[in-house]
Amino acid sequence: MFKKLFSTTLVLLFAFTTTTSTLASPKKQMPNPFENSTQQEIKMKQINLFHDLDVSLEGKLDENTIEKVINENKDKFNLNNQIKLQKVSEFNDELGFTHLKFNQKFNGIPIEGQEIIAHVKNNTLKKITGQIIDNITIVKESTSVLPETQAIEIAKSQFQFKELRTPPTTKVVIYKNPNDNKYYQTYKVNIQYNEPEIGNWEVYIDVYSGKVISIVSNIRYDGVVYGNGTAVDGTTKTLILYQQGSYYYTKDITRPTNSYINTTSANNRQTYPGTTIYSTTTTINDAAGVSAHYYAGVVYQFYKNMFNRNSLDNNGMSLISTVHYGSKYNNAFWDGTQMVYGDGDGTLFRALSGDLDVVAHEMTHGVITHTANLTYKDQSGALNESLADVFGVLVQTYDKYNVANGGQWQFNVSDWVIGDDIYTPSTPGDALRSLANPTLYNQPDHMNNYVYTSDDNGGVHINSGIPNKAAFLIAQNIGCEKTARIYYRALTTYFTSSTNFYNARLGLIQSAKDLYGTDSTEAQTVGWAFDQVGIYQTTDLYEPNDTISQAYRVYSSTSYSSYIFTPTDKDFYKIYVNNGKYLDINLTNVPGDYDLYLYNQSGTLVAYSENGYGSSERIVYKAKYTGYYYILVIGYNGSYSNTQKYTLTPYIY
């Protein structure tokens, strides 16, 4: 209330006086606008390279060729500097494209998570997708470099374990610290162990200071667990076993290229892979093991039949599933190399291997690891979880309607849930998540309700509801098969580790265009579905203007419409005023509780207006020098709207 009363008084004061020599402090503590305007922040710029090109290529399809095209088109890409690349992978698809993935380098060192993909057909570079960083400054606190062996010891000291599962591996990468958004040259040390609990970690250690910059888990859990349940659904499954002497093992060696499906038991310990399940007859008396073994084969065959994918890595990797992990363990996870399932406590979950969509979810995490490798944090992490859910449903329905044997792949709203066969077994009709209606299980289904949090790696499980809803709408309109083909192509062709929701939209639309035509119903449906959940490009023409150094220049008597697009978004503008002139700033069409601030050229706050929710804001100020003044529009207490613009109109008289 004080803010609102004081703001009204302040605006009236400016409206009826010619000048003020002092200014009371605003109610809320405003950050110094120059505080983050370091040399590094001004220089760093992330560039979206989702561009059509149609450039004829000469020479080999390698780093040098693609670098040359990008560097010769710096203006098109809005780049200031030349870039360097390192080739990561290459594959050809059924449409005649060659897709080459590159990692951006800085000073010869790969930048973690900064990837682009070049899409070539008939020796013509058709498109480049992904993101790169323009102008990088490395934080360097020392001139001496930490020995690699010391970095390994520092990494090991971050954990408590009985023994390492594998020797630590180390490589040098440029890494962006998610806490301060600065870049560091780091040792990336991988640490894996089985006890006292499973661990598979990447530890990023500054090569100069030895500081631990970040610790990231490679384990992909199946959601935030509220409960567990065990056992299979009671149906009889046909299993492919391996006989050795008088014993029959849950090991399927019939798959090509010497890969196999092996199902083991941790025997209720928190260690794996454990021992292969076996019997003295051809009947396996382990319900959790039967489900895991059978469903692993179903998922393998889905990816093989639909996309000719040779296992999760497309290179024939063996599929290992461990059941009976821990005691009453209420979760399942992909650890970066295999699947692991708990038995549940019988109340919230049954055995997690007992639901095909859960098994397909975990195994799809494996496909993601070996394709886009989406960073497990914030929007890319939520997209990671969403893709696992989407393919979980698609695999389950593919099997349910017997598509492999000529059945009709049907769309049924009731199928679009995750975990319904294992979640709260005593409560029929519920599920762990719903793609048809994410709000049933406390997930948002629109960007207006996106949850900004530091929990769960930035809310990867809760915010997955938004792209999940889009996928549901797509399948509802064009069917499951086309949805599967569009999503798989986007995942394997256009997505990179840093792909966010909006870039996912672009990649999926492009995949639909590739498969079904530029003006196809399928491509239009993808765009429409993402519109429905609020994932679309802002028409804000003034970004980036989040810092005073990036302030967008405005002129008297001209209106400017823009968004406060996220809870942390800030919009800075600058205007040139002659000494003694009045600057009259009007903020109208306000969709939330937005406030207005005016700074002088030294970054000192000289005037502000803080009215209530949906109210207009106004500042009238007499200039005390000739030069630029800086206007800030910001949402109070995280207020924002990515669907409704505000209008800023300055006047000078």
From TrEMBL:
Every Peptidase C-terminal archaeal/bacterial domain range: 569-633
Signal peptide span: 1-24
Lineage top rank: taxon: Bacteria
Chief localization: secreted
Span of domain FTP: 85-131
Cofactor: Zn(2+)
Active site: 362, 461
Cellular location(s): Secreted
GO molecular function: metal ion binding; metalloendopeptidase activity
Ranges where the PepSY domain occurs: 146-215
Function description: Extracellular zinc metalloprotease.
Family affiliation: Belongs to the peptidase M4 family.
Protein name per UniProt: Neutral metalloproteinase
The species this protein was found in: Thermobrachium celere DSM 8682
